[in-house]
Each structure stands twice: as C-alpha cells, then as structure tokens.
Amino acid sequence: MADFYDTLETRHPDLRELHLFSGLREQLGHARKRSPYFARLLADIQPESVADRAALAALPVTRKSALIESQRALPPFGGMTTVPVGDLGRVFQSPGPIYDPEAKRADYWRMARALYAAGFRRGNLAHNCFSYHFTPAGSMFESGAMAVGCAVFPAGVGNTESQARAVADLRPDGYIGTPSFLKIILEKGRDLGLDCSSLTKGMVSGEALPPSLRAELKALGVSVLQCYGTADIGLIAYESESVEGMIADEGVILEIVRPGTGDPVPEGEVGEVLVTTLNPDYPLIRFATGDLSAVLPGRSPCGRTNMRIKGWMGRADQTTKVKGMFVHPEQVAEVVKRHPEIARARLVVTREDGNDAMTLKCETTGPTAGLAAKLAETMQAVMKLKGRAETVPAGSLPNDGKVIEDARSYE
Q1: What are the E-state strand segments in 297-368?
Q2: Residue closest to 272 by CA, chosen among 303, 322, 307, 312
Q3: Is 253 within 8 Å of 17 (Cβ atoms)?
C-alpha cells in the first residue's frame, strides 16, 4: 500500500478545489491589503467572486520577467511581499538578478512532500548537493528534509573527491542535488575504491533527467525521483513511485495557459505553467514561470489525486528578433484575439532571399475567405512588421507549446 505524506494527497478532487479556492479568496484579500504591488494589480477584483478556475483565469498575470523591473523600481521585492525585509529569515538572489524572500517558518518552500515521496524518512541522513550560496536551492531542500525528520549534510556543489569520501565516511541514506552530479560522485567513489552503497535513494532537480540517466543511476545503486520548482514559488510538482508524470503540490493552484496569454489550454496541450501560491508572505498570484508543460489525464496510479503534469518541457519565452525588431508571444496572442475564428496559431520565421519573413499559420473554426489578407493587416498593426498568413488543417500544428518558431537557417 502506498505511503503518503498526509491526507491532503488523497482527498477527493472536488474537496481539494473547494479548499484551494477558499484559501485563494483569503489570499487575494490579504495581498490587496498588505502588498503594494497586488493592491494596484487587484484593485478592481472582488476576492469573494473568485470561486472557481474560470474566475481565476480572468485575473491578471504576473510574469517572471516583470520581477526584475518591479524590484529595480521598488527594492528589494517590488512591493510584492507582505512583510518587512527585516522580518524574513533569508534573502536569496537568482539570475536576473531577482531577489527571493524566505520567511522563518518551517519548510517555507514546501519541499518535504516531494522528499517524502522519494523515500526520505525520519532518522535518515540526507547528502544535500544543491548550492547554499546566493541561490535558495540548498536551503529549499534542507528545510524540507528537516521537516521530514532527516539530518542534513550541507555538501553544496563541487569538490567531487571530498563529496565521495564524505559519502563513504558518513553513510548517508539519500542524495539531494542534480542527477548529473550524483553520477559524477558515484563514479568518483568507484574509481577511488570507496563504498558509497549507503546511497539508495535520491531527489533530483535543476536539470533534465532522461530515462538513460535514470537507468545509469539505478545501475549504480540509487533510485531517484525528480521534482519541479522555482526560486519564486518553491515546490510546484513532484514525482511519486509510479513515475508517471509529476503531481501538483498541495500548496499551489496550477494552470497551463497559451504562451503570451493567461488563457488556459485544453488537457494535454502544451502551454506555459502558471502558479498561484497560498504563501502569505509572498503571495504570487497567476505567476507565469516561463516554463512549458501539459496536464496529463486521469489520476496517478500511486493513489495521489491531484492534477498531474508532464514535467518541465522547455521554456515558453519565444521572443524573436525579426528585421531588427523583437516579436513577442503576447503580440501573436493579440493578433489571434482579434480574429475569433482562429483556434490555434503559430508564427514561423524564415529566411527568404536573404531577408527575414514571417508566416502566421492558423487552424480555424470558421470561414476563411479573405482571412489571410485581414490577418496580414492585423500583423502589421500589432507587430509593426509585414507578414503573411495561411490556414492549415485542424490538428496539424505541433503540440509543443511554441507560439513563435524560429526556422531561419544562415548556412
């Protein structure tokens, strides 16, 4: 029988939605009162009216790319936090730079749930190879491991030989870090004749985990699961023992939307990951991560009942420079919005006779007579660049989340 971190993981989906949206309404009211940024953004929103996902989808989106501008304008957190910086536990810096707050409460990043699913238990020693410097990854997983009841060896990154010797000396039960570095440590231990067999489980993140690498780590004695999170949100989704997609964390509301918009896409269609967190200190609402994924149908065989996604599938920011001007996914979305007969669209950028060319390929649901000419006019108005449009059969555009495809070749 499967072992669960708590009863939240197996509750009926309808009950989960009820609890999440009750928490969301409270969060909206709290954010409007305590956060200058959300006071402005949500000024016209009535929290009590946001009762379901349709109402959530009508709320404005905050993009990760906007954090840099907001934080520069109003340091250190762009007015998005609800507590003074001196009341926090730690402050981190992610590339950008983007500054990330950490409050003082236990398991602030909610990583315990993912670690428990990977087999970490009270009394274990966890060998944590995520960085403790500047970025929050080391602290994220350390606080989660301690919430589970583990002791933690704060190994950090680098020093491969010392890492392998520490594993042989301390006999940790599990590894936390990137999968590629685990492979390096295990191989170094083998080359040095060290016994690293105490490591039997791992929680990995931060990079891709192809099946071949998972199999190599298994052959070296370590069964690993992976999770997906960000420095802004913390845990978003995690694998269970069934290894069939990633299960959404119980502390977030997860949406998949068409890149460049806040419009949810159908189940199975690749889109951008939007996350709303119920974190009272940093109440990010409809936060666009810039990552691509898709919702998987049905429930996990492990018995957990929350939504599943395919995991990280690439980046949604497809901004492309055409004829010296940037074209953004938001602009493609605006063109589509002005023509409701378009179901899906993809802007393909090519080189023709040494010049950049744009073609908007569209799947349609209505009459197409004269549509190409109208679309060309709209493209000129929105993008300030000339382009052409063509209709394609329904279902013919790839399901990869791309709104802009740069197909140029300079050879």
Answers
A1: 308-309, 320-322, 325-327, 342-352, 355-364
A2: 312
A3: no
pLDDT for 186:
97
* Predicted model pTM: 0.84
Alpha helices in 35-176 (DSSP H): 36-41, 53-56, 64-73, 112-117, 137-148, 160-170
Burial class (CB in 10 A: 0-12, 13-18, 19+), 25: middle
Q: 380, 338 in Cβ contact below 8 A?
A: no
pLDDT at 1: 41
Instruction: Please state, in angstroms and rounded to a whole number, the distance separating the CA atoms of residues 388 and 351.
Output: 14
* Whole-Å CA distances, 278 to 23, 29, 51, 60, 78: 7, 12, 15, 16, 19
- Yes or no: say if 347 and 397 are a contact pair by the CB < 8 Å rule: no
Determine the pLDDT at residue 401: 87
> In this predicted structure, what is the pLDDT of residue 228?
95
Residues of the chain with confidence (pLDDT) below 70: 1-2, 410-411
What is the DSSP code string of 211-227?
HHHHHHHHHTT-EEEEE
One-letter amino acid for residue 304 of the chain: R
Return d(Cα 302, Cα 316) in angstroms, integer: 30
Reported for 24-30, long-range contacts at CB under 8 A and 24+ positions apart, including other chains, are: 24/50, 24/56, 24/253, 24/276, 24/278, 25/50, 25/51, 27/276, 27/278, 27/280, 27/283, 27/285, 28/285, 30/82, 30/280, 30/283
The residue behind tokens 């013919």 is 396
Q: What amino acid occupies position 66?
A: A
